[in-house]
Amino acid sequence: MQPLRERLMTRLLTAKGYLSGTEVSQDLGVSREAVWKHIRALRREGFVISASPRKGYLLLDVPDVLHPGVVLPSLTGAFGRPYHYHGVLSSTNDRAKELAHAGAVEGTVVAAEEQTGGRGRRGRLWHSPHGGLWFSLILRPTVALQNTLTLVERQPCDFRQSNSEKFPEAAKNKHSAESEAGRRGAYTEVREHRTASLTKLGAVLQQPPTVSPAEIHTLSLLVSLAVVQGVEELLGIRPDLKWPNDIILDGRKAGGVLVEISAEAEQVHYAVAGVGLNVNITFFPEELEAFATSLKIYTEKETCRARLLGVILKTLENSYFRWCREGFAPFLKDYKERLCCLEKEVVVDDAGRVFGGVVLDVEAGGRLVLGLPDGKTIHLSGGEVTVREGSGP
């Protein structure tokens, strides 16, 4: 959508009644004919807009679309700007990775009404028809390098070194060790070095929040938690989570998260967090019917996907920057309270290695703690969890 049309859409959405054609044309700095042209374009896209020669324009109905004109006015933070909208796309994650590689800023969102090549973990195809919430978010977390704060220079404060080594300017005076001038020069040099060190330390502290390398793999858990919190805020229902990042309603899968990271040993170039959520979908392929559900099936009513996207992005933005500063530990309690497999008997398929046992815990680093039948415990970083039927605490 063009910026002018986005502004017009915002005015229509926020107006308490009819919007005067003269007033809006003056506000947007265009002719009334240009306003009318964009009104007709919005009507073709499904927006129901009444037009009266005397009263102006009134927005009567908004289609269930992820249209920028509907989504952007609902955004309250930086996440979602820029916003890339597609009717049909192979994969929002693939498109987001292309944009990230080209330098797209953190907070950029790619959304689609439908995906033809959507995928979940392990490359599985993800059923992504119209009616779902399919979007990807570009993130650029700064990984904290070890020993970052060694920028504080110790040498200038080490008075055990001779003045001639430490303070070469003072040493030029033949009486530098004894003279008042030499002492003044030495103390001046110390102050200058201290000031430089504190300036460097201040620069470090003013940098964007950093996340430790060990925490980067908890990002998918954080995103899944933000999604269910957003759903709860908007709809008043409380979805569960299944480790590591499946979204569960009434024992069936309603969505999931796929995080893909481009990184080197101590540098994350970018992370793309893909979210797939079954919102207003009521029919699934036969092979998914027994396992899948949607918000509409669960609540028996439709949800405005644009509003839901706005709430999820707001929740995720707030959580993300805290995660960058403090890691996943502050979120662990909320995450475990929603975990449907905690203290349940499960089977975990970890890339072909299959383990049976009881889920004992999830660590702050995101690993699953599984108690085995022989009394031993193992810690898993990934895998597909299946809860045994009839299993309880």
Topology:
Layout: H1 3-14, H2 21-28, H3 32-44, E1 48-52, E2 56-61, H4 68-71, E3 83-89, H5 92-101, E4 109-115, E5 133-139, E6 142-143, H6 163-166, H7 168-171, H8 180-205, E7 210-211, H9 219-235, E8 240-242, E9 246-249, E10 252-264, E11 267-277, H10 295-299, H11 305-326, H12 329-337, E12 345-350, E13 353-362, E14 368-371, E15 377-380, E16 384-387
Parallel strand pairs: 3-4, 6-7
Antiparallel strand pairs: 1-2, 4-5, 5-11, 8-9, 9-10, 10-11, 12-13, 12-16, 13-14, 14-15
Helix pairs in contact: 2-3, 9-11
Key attributes of the depicted protein:
seven-stranded mixed sheet, single chain, 393 residues, 16 strands
Can you give the mean pLDDT? 83
Order of helices and strands: HHHEEHEHEEEHHHEHEEEEHHHEEEEE
Question: Stretches where pLDDT falls below 50 for ≥5 residues?
Answer: 146-206
Give me the secondary-structure category.
alpha+beta
Shape: elongated
Number of helices: 12
Radius of gyration: 28 Å
Helix content: 25-40%
Distance between the termini: 51 Å
Number of strands: 16
**Major sheet:** 7 strands, mixed
Which strand order do you get reading across the main beta sheet? 3-4-5-11-10-9-8
What proportion of the residues form beta strands (DSSP E)? 15-25%
Report on the architecture of this protein.
The protein is of the alpha+beta class and 393 residues long. The chain has helices at residues 3-14, 21-28, 32-44, 68-71, 92-101, 163-166, 168-171, 180-205, 219-235, 295-299, 305-326, 329-337; strands at residues 48-52, 56-61, 83-89, 109-115, 133-139, 142-143, 210-211, 240-242, 246-249, 252-264, 267-277, 345-350, 353-362, 368-371, 377-380, 384-387. A seven-stranded mixed β-sheet has the order 3-4-5-11-10-9-8, sandwiched between helices.
